[in-house]
Write a structure and sequence with these properties.
Blueprint: E1 2-5, H1 14-26, E2 31-36, E3 40-45, E4 48-53, H2 58-72, E5 76-79, H3 82-95, E6 99-103, H4 120-136, E7 140-143, E8 158-160, E9 182-186, H5 195-203, E10 210-214, H6 222-231, E11 238-242, H7 246-256, E12 259-261, H8 269-272, H9 277-284, E13 289-292, H10 296-305, E14 308-311, H11 316-325, H12 329-344, H13 350-364
Parallel strand pairs: 1-2, 1-5, 2-4, 5-6, 6-7, 7-8, 9-10, 9-12, 10-11, 12-13, 13-14
Antiparallel strand pairs: 3-4
Length: 368
């Protein structure tokens, strides 16, 4: 059994479970996702068994995650966050099994926004040393996007497994027609992900334009969002759907949304290197995207495929201008079709899954 170990990711996480775990199951391995939750087993997701550990906080759960990982005695451990990496290294050493570290973000810069500018370079250097040490003793690192490998030069193996599109099964693409537009924000939302600019842009669009938000506020700013929407007179035009299971979220987006918004704000390294699921989800649904020009991987895909418009996301008027350009249903349909075709071919998940499966065949010598 391959153990997918998470200190923070949810039980049905898109990358960990629905992409990576499902790919390993399809290749013939048994896979279990051990993660935070109510405690005990939950129904399987995409063929992946789910086990959860309860606790009041992230740190308080770590010992229980370690004990359960040891009890499960996996053939390999695939860990998804730096604190999970540390647990995986300890458990892997005792069990004598391979350990794979999944690098989702540019972790050395995660403290930048919490520190004064003079302290950021030494903090990055310290984090690089700590994380690099964990990678040095692992069997491989898996990289979710380009630009991350430089922080792990001593890793025995480095394999890129990017968050490319997982085509929704049985879900028809959005049919673009005339009429008012519904703008979509899918996934985690917060100030740094651009909701202030999103609302200010919405206020500049025709009064029938609506905004659908599917996902959680991850920075505690929901009350501020609601207050700003009320102050701008936008409350009747905004729907906060909250978190939804992946299938339900994509089905609602396909039925209602016309334009996919990705509005990461500059100033964070992870935003410059972003390669978010929401880009590929929107492409797979045939939705044109409005995205930041500074986010290099996102911009490269949008330019390569012609699936949307790149703007200065710090300027609400630029966002509103892009919305106006996409009022033409024929243009939306053309960009949406280009994105959907690309998501099914060169930007699809199968090639990434093959690299992950290939890595495990090297580490485990085939399928048990």
């Amino acid at each position: 059994m391959i153990l997918m170990l998470s200190a923070a990711h949810p039980a049905d996480d898109m990358r960990v479970v629905r992409k990576e775990g499902a790919a390993l199951v399809e290749a013939g391995w048994a896979v279990t996702h051990l993660c935070p939750g109510p405690g005990g087993a939950l129904p399987p997701v995409a063929g992946v068994a789910i086990e959860t550990v309860a606790g009041r906080g992230r740190l308080s759960r770590l010992p229980a995650l370690y004990r359960r990982a040891m009890a499960l005695r996996p053939r390999a451990i695939h860990a998804s966050e730096p604190d999970a990496w540390a647990i995986a290294r300890l458990a892997g050493a005792r069990l004598g099994c391979p350990v794979v570290l999944d690098v989702h973000e540019h972790y050395p810069s995660r403290l930048d926004t919490r520190l004064p500018a003079p302290l950021r370079p030494p903090a990055r250097a310290l984090l690089r040393r700590v994380l690099g040490g964990l990678a040095r003793g692992s069997d491989a690192v898996v990289l979710a996007k380009e630009g991350l490998a430089a922080d792990y030069p001593a890793a025995p193996r480095a394999v890129e497994v990017r968050n490319h599109a997982l085509a929704p099964e049985g879900l028809a693409p959005r049919c673009h027609g005339p009429g008012p537009l519904t703008l979509l924000h899918l996934g985690a939302i917060g100030v740094a992900r651009g909701w202030p600019q999103m609302l200010d842009a919405l206020a500049l669009t025709p009064p029938e334009t609506r905004l659908l938000v599917i996902g959680r506020f991850t920075d505690g700013s929901e009350d501020a969002f609601r207050a700003r929407a009320e102050a701008l007179g936008l409350t009747p035009r905004v729907t906060l759907a909250g978190w939804m299971p992946a299938e339900a979220a994509l089905a609602r987006a396909a039925a209602e949304a016309d334009v996919n918004l990705i509005l990461f704000q500059p100033g964070e390294e992870n935003h410059r290197l972003a390669l978010p699921h929401k880009l590929f989800d929107g492409m797979a649904l045939g939705l044109p995207v409005i995205a930041p020009g500074f986010a290099e991987p996102v911009a490269a895909i949008v330019e390569d495929t012609g699936c949307g418009l790149l703007v200065d996301v710090t300027r609400p008027e630029a966002i509103a201008g892009a919305v106006a350009e996409l009022a033409d249903p024929a243009r939306r349909a053309g960009m949406g079709a280009a994105g959907r075709e690309a998501a099914a071919t060169r930007w699809g998940w199968p090639a990434e899954a093959s690299r992950l499966v290939g890595l495990y065949r090297v580490l485990l010598g085939g399928v048990a």
